[in-house]
Amino acid sequence: MIYSFKGFIPVVHPSSFIHPQAAVTGNVIIGKNVYVGPGAAIRGDWGAIVIEDGCNVQENCTIHMFPGVTVLLKESAHIGHGAVIHGATIGRNCLVGMNSVIMDNVELGDECIVGALSLIKADEKVPARSLLVGNPAKIIKQVSDEMIQWKTDGTRLYQALPGEMQSQWTPCEPLPELPPDRPAQSALYKTWNDIRKG
């Protein structure tokens, strides 16, 4: 669902995948290998939204702003399910956890990780490589090399997903029962807790 608004037509690189149940409106620019999941609302009606290469905006996320503001998701930003980004700048290779809220004029430095359900208050300037959790969110420590590698590996799955969706995703009717030859899915990634356990 791609909509023009007041003469602004969204720009989406052909390598990206925008789910047809997402809504992308107006002054929105989406770079290469970006995944936008179903239920996402990316509203460039009152200001601009720039989503750089390799980002993902997962299911039920909202991106919006006050009038005249530009929202920027820098390269490889990873926006988890249900998160809200309102008038903020998200740094390169950041992870914003599920159902987090990033408020107006926040500048999230590069390679930050924001825990699920966190709230970053308006006007916060967050240094690079900060790990934040809570409501309101507080910096609890610096992001380690190991943590950012885990985040980067997870984002690579999402960077490959647009091409996989374009080549292998298709509407279908459900099966009435489980077939005996249904294949197993491979485990492509470990959670952070699994990595810490070794």
From TrEMBL:
CDD domains: LbH_paaY_like. It comes from the Bacteria. Gene3D superfamilies: Hexapeptide repeat proteins (2.160.10.10). This is Gamma carbonic anhydrase family protein. Signal peptide: none annotated. It comes from Niastella vici. Coiled coil: none annotated.
